[in-house]
Design goal:
It contains 26 helices and ten strands. It is of the alpha+beta class. The protein has two domains: 83 residues, no CATH class; 437 residues, Cytochrome p450 (Orthogonal Bundle). Strand 1 and strand 2 form a beta hairpin. The longest helix has 35 residues. Bound molecules: protoporphyrin IX containing FE (HEM). The site of protoporphyrin IX containing FE (HEM) has 25 residues, from helix 9, helix 19 and helix 25. It comes from Linnemannia elongata AG-77.
Length: 584
């Protein structure tokens, strides 16, 4: 066939079935083209001269086929020139340990040791059989490539593996286009700037949770499930205001939403395969239990919003000036969303509550999880409690002194003391006070660096992509980042002994808990870096500060269980018992 269609000078033609079909297809297309053109009378044939038609037509057809042959020959020539280039390097599959059928077991036994072996054996990009998938793992600078290339998508990976998009979208009516990034703009424009204002409420909620959850413990008290205390701190007031969040049904909704979500997603079971999680979410999106939770929020919010409207009307009638009006309006996220209803394109209150539910799902679980692990690190490294407590006292002493001086200065000038300088708040655990606690910040960054699971940040290739080393990730290819390479084996970024937990290693380095980069990825990086990390930082700092101020000792009831919580592991929600001993 190739001999007939192509001259001897033609380059060799690949002989797969597809390549043979191409010329036949093009010849057929040519014939059809001629026939259709004839019917439409739109070509150069002389229809009026019937006797010459068949000859002219045949000549034209042969001409057309000749042209097509030439095109095909040219394209195959190009093909062959291209195929002379070296084939892209293959991505090596890491060898399996004798007796293992996948890499899961070896990875779970010691994440860093396993990934160091992978990298030594196969280089920075390799394939693993893990989580019941074949996944390409990228290390070192290739992690940056994965994060900064928009064609590798985290949300698409989660959607492909678990169908999260469909499930979450069943909770909202507007802003379903992920690129609209409504959550991001709410967090960045309203939540983060308002964080200092929410602090007093956060402290109050957490203190109450501690009193309820631990109670008096001068002699030491066992708390079987410490995560339960921390989850009571859920940020309900920040999102929906104290009036709504104080409703016990709403508080329960916040907590239960996370339980529902974790259950549907199978977050509590490391052995659930992704297809089961995917199926669960697909099935549940029709009868999404969280939809009822959204309705509960909406029902609880309705009377509160009506009351807020009445108050606004009253202020306007009273002719309140702008500062008073602004001061007396609520500053929670619910109010901000109502104020910008049209701008965000919300449909109704239920839609707003759906968006709040999404915020809760992204924020509450992550913050509770991080706070709980920080408390476990306090228990595993008891000297940290002493240092952090000392720092807290020094910072609060300094702030108290400064405020006393400011009051004295006002009095000496015959000025009234402003309400902000009320001595009752001199030793508040304010956002400003937390910012001064550099040991605390270093401790938290170090905990996040050491605890974050070594294989994380699923990404999926939206189309075929070539990495800078020439390796090709095919369309729909799944990828994971090897954080061992940048967190545990990277003394250039983290200083000596990077594999060890050293809580004060970042003091004086300007590397704060929220400062992301390719050497520190608990919050991701690039366009989709976590926008909630500033809130997470403030909340986790509040939890740790309260813990060290209230308790002299926090200990594992069974020290053998410490290892299970000092490093996160996909699907593992272990919460071993702790013994709390109060300061007084
Ligand atoms: C310690 C707590 C937290 C951790 C470890 C964490 C971690 C992450 C990570 C790894 C990502 C994905 C980044 C990427 O794809 O590159 C992310 C995204 C996100 N996080 Fe967080 N997060 C935390 C707390 C929060 C909080 C408190 C909020 C909300 C107030 C929040 C809201 C979000 C949102 C909306 C995204 C999606 C960003 C986007 O796709 O553009 N997170 N977070």
């Amino acid at each position: 066939m190739t001999g007939i269609l192509y001259a001897d000078t033609s380059p060799p033609i690949p002989t797969n079935a597809f390549s043979l079909l191409v010329p036949i297809f093009l010849a057929l297309v040519s014939i059809a083209y001629v026939a259709i053109s004839k019917m439409l009378g739109m070509h150069h044939f002389h229809f009026e001269r019937q006797q010459s038609f068949s000859r002219t037509c045949l000549a034209s057809l042969v001409n057309t086929i000749d042209q097509q042959r030439k095109k095909i020959a040219d394209s195959f020539h190009d093909y062959n020139i291209r195929s002379d280039k070296p084939r892209p390097p293959t991505i090596p599959m890491v060898s399996l340990r004798p007796g293992d059928k996948t890499h899961d077991k070896e990875y779970r036994e010691n994440q860093d040791k396993f990934l160091t072996r992978c990298q030594t054996e196969s280089g920075p990009v390799f394939k693993l059989l893990i989580h019941r998938l074949q996944i390409t793992v990228v290390s070192d600078e290739f992690i940056r490539e994965m994060f900064l290339n928009e064609n590798f998508s985290n949300i698409d990976a989660l959607n492909e593996l678990m169908g999260v998009k469909t499930f979450l979208h069943s909770l909202i009516k507007s802003g379903k286009n992920h690129d609209a990034r409504i959550q991001n703009s709410i967090i960045l424009e309203h939540l983060t700037p308002g964080l200092p204002k929410y602090q007093a409420e956060m402290v109050r909620a957490l203190e109450a949770a501690l009193v309820d959850g631990v109670g008096p413990c001068v002699q030491g008290k066992v708390v079987e499930c410490p995560v339960a205390i921390i989850q009571d701190m859920v940020a309900g007031t920040v999102f929906m205001g104290a009036e709504v969040a104080s409703n016990s049904k709403v508080l329960e909704t916040f907590i239960m939403s996370m339980h529902d979500f974790a259950k549907i997603l199978g977050l509590n079971d490391v052995n659930i395969p992704f297809w089961r999680r995917w199926l669960n979410l697909k099935l549940n999106h029709f009868n999404n239990p969280l939809k009822h939770r959204v309705q509960t929020l909406s029902e609880a919010a309705t009377p509160v919003i009506l009351e807020r409207r009445r108050c606004e009307a009253r202020l306007i009638n009273e002719g309140a000036d702008a500062p008073r009006f602004i001061k007396e309006r609520p500053h929670d996220i619910l109010q901000k969303m109502l104020d910008r209803f049209d701008e965000y394109g919300f449909v109704d209150l239920e839609d707003i509550c759906g968006h709040i539910m999404l915020l809760i799902l992204t924020s509450v679980h992550t913050t509770i999880d991080a706070s709980t692990s920080m408390v476990y690190y306090l228990a595993a490294y008891p000297e940290t409690i002493t240092v952090l407590h000392r720092e807290q006292l020094q910072v609060l002493d300094a702030i108290q002194q400064e405020r006393q001086q400011e009051r004295a200065s006002s009095l000496s000038k015959g000025l009234e003391i402003s309400p902000e300088l009320d001595p009752a708040h001199d030793r508040d655990l304010s956002a400003a006070a937390l910012k001064r606690m550099v040991h605390l910040d270093s401790f938290q960054r170090e905990v996040l660096r050491c605890r974050t699971e070594a294989l994380t940040h699923f990404h999926m290739a939206r189309k075929e992509n070539t990495l800078s080393n020439g390796m090709v990730i095919p369309k729909y290819g799944m990828m994971l980042a090897n954080l061992t390479s940048i967190h545990a084996n990277n003394s250039a970024a983290h200083g000596p002994n990077p594999a060890k937990f050293q809580p004060w290693r970042y003091i004086g380095t300007f590397k704060t808990m929220t400062k992301v980069g390719v050497d520190y990825l608990p919050f991701g990086m690039g366009k989709h870096v976590c926008p909630g990390r500033f809130m997470a930082s403030q909340q986790t700092k509040t939890v740790v500060s309260l813990m060290v101020s209230k308790f002299e000792k926090i200990e594992f009831q069974d020290l053998g269980q410490a290892a299970s919580v000092l490093r996160t592991q996909h699907g593992n929600v272990a919460s071993p018992a702790l013994v709390f001993t109060s300061r007084e």
